[in-house]
Amino acid sequence: MECELALGGDVPPGAHDELTRRLYDAGAATRVAPQWVRDPEPGRRAGEFIAVATLAVTFSGTLVAVVDVVRRWLIEGRERRSGARRGVTTIVLKVDGTELVITEPSTDGERQVLEHFLRTHAAGRTGNGPGDGGNDGDGGDGAGRPLP
User: Under CATH, what is the fold of the domain 2-105?
Assistant: First the structure.
């Protein structure tokens, strides 16, 4: 399975590399690939790849392991931060077209949404087409039924 992670906030240099190491060290990912963006020069349409926009994460275990690593990393980053530099404050997790914003500390409501998101994807509702039980973008379970 794959998911995409987008770091939000004041992302310091090396943040993507650090999170990648954490995902590998915890055994939560089998592959992590940075997705680069271009920054065009003034008056030009394309430029050099200059920044990591997201991380494409392949995992063989559960999505829960990836989320656990992300949450711990956000908490530890918050504890290390001081001064004007805020650091990474949110991570957007995207699986099969569904996005979830992870913040730490989380509110009770955010934790409930996260638990529902994980239950939904753990229940096999992550396919790609009608009738396969996946999320095909219609807000249902992929077979025309609404999600619980």
Answer: Alpha-Beta Plaits (3.30.70)
CA 60-35-120 angle, to 5 degrees, is 40
Neighbours of 102 (CB within 10 A): 19
Please tell me the total number of residues recorded for the chain in this structure. Answer: 148
Residue 22, token pair as written in the block: 């954490």
Q: Which of 25, 132, 35, 77 is nearest to 141 (CA)?
A: 132
Q: Is the dihedral of CA 15, 51, 98, 113 positive or negative?
A: positive
pLDDT tens digits, 30-47 = 999 988 766 555 665 554
- Secondary structure (DSSP) of 73-117: HHHHHHHH--TT---EEEEEEEETTEEEEEESSPPHHHHHHHHHH
CA distance 113 to 132: 23
pLDDT in tens, 41-95: 566 555 444 566 788 999 878 899 999 999 999 888 877 765 545 678 889 999 9
Largest CA distance in the chain: 52
pTM assigned to the model: 0.69
